[in-house]
Design a protein that fits this description.
Blueprint: H1 4-10, H2 20-41, H3 44-51, H4 55-62, H5 65-80, H6 95-111, H7 113-125, H8 130-158, H9 166-175, H10 180-186, H11 194-212
Helix pairs in contact: 2-3, 2-5, 2-7, 4-5, 5-8, 6-11, 8-9
Amino acid sequence: MFKAQDDAAAKPRRGRPPDPERYRRILEAACSHFHAHGLERASVSAIAAHAGVSKMTIYCHFRSKEGLFEAVVRDRTGRVVGGISGAEALDPKKPRKALLAIGGQFLTLARDEGELDQFRSLYGTAGTQPRACHAFYRQGADRLIGDLAAYLRRANAAGTLTVRHPRQAADLFMATFLGDGHIRGLLMLDPPNAQQNRALLQETVRVFMAAYARGGRDGAG
C-alpha cells in the first residue's frame, strides 16, 4: 500500500477542465507515448510538446506522470465501456440482456491492443512501478468489477438473479474473458476472431444465468 499523501498526489485534480479541447489533446498525446514507451520511459516533456502545451500545464491538470497515466486508463475504460459505468441504469429485470451488453463491452476492452500493451508494460515493471499498477487496477479491473457487482445487487433485489456475493460473482464473470484469448493477445499470438469472441460471450452469459437466475427465469425480455 502507498502512503495516503503519495496516492493523493498522483490523482488528477477534480472538476471540469477549463479547456476541454486542450485536456483531450493531452490525454491523446499521453496515450500515444505510454503506448509507445511504457510509463517508465515516457517523457512528460515529450507529451507536452506533442500536445502543444507546457509541462506546467500538464502538472496543473494531473500533478504527476502517474496521475496522467491514471487519467489515460480511466479515459480509455470510460470510452470503451461507457454503459458499464452507468450500470445502475441497466434494467435489473433483464439480466441476460444486461450481461450480454456488459460482457461485450468488457471483451472489447480486453482484446484492445492498447490495453494489452499496458498489461505487457506493467507486468515487466510491477516491482518498480507499484503506483502505476495500482492506478491501472483501480481504473480498470476494480472499477469494472465494482460496477458489475452494483448491477448484480439490483438484479438480486429485483428477484431476477440470486447472487449472495455480488463482487465474487462479478469477478467470476469478468475472469471468463481473460483466458486463452487474452493470453494469446498478451503473447502477440493470433487473437480470437469476431465469431469466436461472440461464441465466448454467449456461452459465458448462458453459464452465468444457469448458475444465478432465480426460479429458472433467464431474464431474456
